[in-house]
Amino acid sequence: MASSLHSASSYADLVDLGRRLYEQSLVRREQEYITDPRGQPIGWLLDTRMPMLKGEMLREVGQVLAERLRSKDIDQVAGYGFGSYSMVCAVLGAPGEPSFLGGFIREARKPHGRRRLVEGPLDPAQPLVLLDDILNSGRSAAKAVALLRDDGYNVVGLITLFNFTWSGGRARLETEGIWVDSLLDLNLSDSGRSSSDSA
What we know:
Blueprint: H1 11-25, E1 26-28, E2 44-46, H2 49-52, H3 55-71, E3 76-79, H4 82-92, E4 101-105, E5 118-119, E6 127-135, H5 139-150, E7 154-164, H6 169-174, E8 179-186
Parallel strand pairs: 3-4, 3-6, 6-7, 7-8
Antiparallel strand pairs: 1-2, 4-5
Helix pairs in contact: 3-4
C-alpha cells in the first residue's frame, strides 16, 4: 500500500500507516456476526471508526490528510455521514498552517433554529473538499456533493481513507468534475485480504 499523492510524509511512513489503518479497520466474520445493508451475512467489512477513534491514529491520519489538502491550497473540509466525523476532526486538529475550517452535512435542512443544511463556519465561495471514510459505489459521496452544490458550495474534491478499486465510485465522482484522492486504493477479495500494493 502506498501514497497516491506526494506529501511531506515519507513513503515508508505512509505504507506503515496504511497497513495499520487497514489491519485495525478489518472485521472478519470469525470475530463477530456482520451483515450487509440488506441484513445478509458477510465475510468481512472495514470499520474505520475503530482505529480513527484512537488518539494516536487520529493524529497520524489528520497530519497526512492536512498535508494533502495544503498541497492543493484547500483549507476547508466537510463530512457527510458518521464515518467522516473523525476525519473532519482529525484535519481540524492537525498542526501547521494554514488551519482548516470544517463542517458537517445534514440529510436535509434543519427545519428550525438557523435552518442550515451544512453546519460549520464554511465559506461557500472558497474551494471545499468532501471527506469520507470509504469510497465504494460513490452514491453517498455523489449525494453529498449534490447537497453541497445545491446549497451554493464550491466542491472540488474528495479525500477518502479507502477506495474500493473494483467499484465505480471514482469514475462516478470524476464525471461530476470532482478529483478523488484516497489514502489507500484496495482490491479486496471476500477473504478481506488486500491484493493490491497501490494506494
